[in-house]
Amino acid sequence: MISIIVCSVREALRDALRSNVAETIGVPYEFIIIENEKTYYSISQAYNIGASQAQYPYLCFVHEDIVFHTRNWGNVLIGHFKETDARLIGILGTLIKTKAHSSVHIPFPNLNRHYQLQRYENNELDFFFDNPRHEKQSEVCMLDGLFIASTKKAWEETRFSDDYLKGFHGYDIDFSLKNFLKGKVLVVYDILIEHSSLGTFSKSWIDTQLLVTKRWRKRLPLAV
Predict the structure, then answer these.
(1) pTM exceeds 0.85 for this model
(2) How distant is the alpha carbon of residue 6 from its chain centre?
(3) d(CA 131, CA 91)
(4) Where are the strands (E) in the chain, listed by range?
(5) pLDDT by residue (tens digit) across 1-36?
(6) 194 contacts 125 by C-beta, under 8 angstroms
(7) CATH for 2-223, among 3.40.710.10, 3.65.10.10, 3.40.1550.10, 3.90.550.10?
(8) For 126-154, what is each residue's pLDDT tens digit?
């Protein structure tokens, strides 16, 4: 029922993810792993290649360094799709994309929606929970790429922008905005995922944010 698509560069991490998903998902699934240490695709290319091979109606685009803590999360996820008719579902996002370059998490807590465990290099663990309206699902306009679930139909209609996003940043913002213009993009609070890396504000990241904002400038700002 769910196709899990991973752009991977580390064998140990993808093997650990395989084991974790097998123990937790609770529904029929398939793994489509792009071993990018061999192919060197952009993440947009890798995800489009993986999604084109998917046999199931629900797609999960995930980072390789995550751990699912929720048992039977596959049924939980499918339930949200069926209940809401959402196009995309994630666990971290924001309600606004400004005219200025901005990320999926902005320095205004009331505009962020978040349900996640963060593991640090010193092995400490933080729990992030932003749900000021106490909602079951929150509508947002952008999702973080650590976990983006999509209907296959939504992906077919929007695809990742491998024409202009040639690296490993910005794909989540662009894909989210395309789907936001067509329907619901949601954050949910009952699929708990641990992530083991932090985003870096490198020159490449900044350049890509500027590029995405330029591409979308005629439509911005966008907000729920």
Answers:
(1) yes
(2) 11
(3) 11
(4) 2-8, 29-35, 58-62, 66-68, 88-90, 92-94, 96-97, 112-119, 125-130, 137-139, 142-143, 147-151, 185-188, 193-195, 222-223
(5) 999 999 999 999 999 999 999 999 999 999 999 999
(6) yes
(7) 3.90.550.10
(8) 999 999 999 999 999 999 999 999 999 99
